[in-house]
Specification:
Elements (H helix, E strand, L loop, with lengths): L15 H38 L4 H24 L1
Helix pairs in contact: 1-2
């Protein structure tokens, strides 16, 4: 005897349940990308400034720490607002 497996309809972009699910996940994902992005962008900026000013590695380290500070500030702000 074969049993039929019924599949539920796939969620469409206008489905309210899907929109709610995505809305709950959107903010934490954007915060994590912001943390990584701030570290990478400011670290890279410091790296290129070091190369042009011949001050290796000090500006890159300043950029990395500034990126960390900005990223963790955004993370802290998100955690408090939750």
């Amino acid at each position: 005897m074969q049993t039929e497996h019924r599949r539920s309809q796939p969620a469409t972009p206008s489905d309210p349940a899907l929109q709610e699910e995505l809305g709950q996940r959107e903010r934490p994902m954007s915060v994590s990308y912001g943390v990584v992005g701030a570290i990478l962008v400011l670290g890279a900026l410091g790296f290129f400034l070091d190369r042009s000013l011949h001050s290796t590695p000090w500006l890159m380290l300043v950029g990395l720490f500034a990126g960390l500070a900005i990223g963790f500030y955004a993370l802290r702000k998100f955690m408090i607002s939750r």
